[in-house]
């Protein structure tokens, strides 16, 4: 999994996921069709007109295998996050395919 904080123009906030999707080839060493990814606004800097974005991406086979493993137990997957599930603050990132 790759995770990083991005600084982007505030104007992309309304279509954040789409905007980040356009740059996946630049942000990761993988092609966009090889990844599941998500991005959420972590903070805003109104003075500079920018947003800090929490970004995570993982190769599809990793998520697909984990989801198949859980499905074999009879469970439904509602989210795959890059954070420790015991964390006091739940992750807002969700790497589950749409």
Description of the molecule:
This protein has a three-stranded antiparallel β-sheet. The chain is 24% helix and 30% strand. It is built from three helices and three strands. With 98 residues, it is α+β, with helices and mostly antiparallel strands. It has helices spanning 16-22, 24-27, 60-72, and strands at residues 2-9, 35-45, 50-59. A hairpin with a 4-residue loop joins strand 2 and strand 3 (50-59). The mean pLDDT is 91.
Short account of what is shown:
This protein is of the alpha+beta class and 98 residues long.
Features:
single chain; 3-stranded antiparallel beta sheet; 3 strands; globular
**How would you classify the quaternary structure?**
single chain
The number of distinct helices, counting runs of at least 4 residues, comes to 3
Separation of termini? 18 Å
Radius of gyration: 15 Å
The gross shape turns out to be: globular
The largest pleated sheet is described as: 3 strands, antiparallel
Low-confidence stretches: none
What proportion of the residues is helical, as a percent range? Answer: 10-25%
**Global structural class:** alpha+beta
Q: What's the pLDDT, averaged over the residues? A: 91
Write the layout of secondary structure elements.
Blueprint: E1 2-9, H1 16-22, H2 24-27, E2 35-45, E3 50-59, H3 60-72
Antiparallel strand pairs: 1-3, 2-3
